[in-house]
Amino acid sequence: MPGELIPITLFICAAALIIGIRYLSNKEKMAMIERGIDPGLRKATPMPFLSLKFGLLMIGAGLGLIVALLTTRAILTNLDAEKGQAVAIYFGCIFIFGGLGLVISYVIEKKWLDKQP
């Protein structure tokens, strides 16, 4: 009996969540219209460096994978370490190099914005 209630409950909760989000979004837009604010205005904000940010993040993650591969092959063959350490090395390198990609993106954006009058 309880195993049959799980999919039913999941479907009901998902439907209620979608309906609730739509209802609250509609109420927010109606309140903005009553105050004289255009509800579509805030969605038009451009993000000029988004592709640069994602590109450098992907490059950093790729470099992290390559460094992790080389590191695990060098360490695990010589020291005969556990396989769990290899997973930690992979995740660590991916996050470190991905973060470095985002920092480089920030530095490039900052330099470009400082040049603007």
Automatic annotation (TrEMBL):
<keyword id="KW-0812">Transmembrane</keyword>
<keyword id="KW-0472">Membrane</keyword>
<feature type="transmembrane region" description="Helical">
    <location>
        <begin position="88"/>
        <end position="108"/>
    </location>
</feature>
<dbReference type="InterPro" id="IPR046216">
    <property type="entry name" value="DUF6249"/>
</dbReference>
<feature type="transmembrane region" description="Helical">
    <location>
        <begin position="52"/>
        <end position="76"/>
    </location>
</feature>
<protein>
    <recommendedName>
        <fullName>DUF6249 domain-containing protein</fullName>
    </recommendedName>
</protein>
<feature type="domain" description="DUF6249">
    <location>
        <begin position="10"/>
        <end position="110"/>
    </location>
</feature>
<dbReference type="Pfam" id="PF19762">
    <property type="entry name" value="DUF6249"/>
</dbReference>
<keyword id="KW-1133">Transmembrane helix</keyword>
<feature type="transmembrane region" description="Helical">
    <location>
        <begin position="6"/>
        <end position="25"/>
    </location>
</feature>
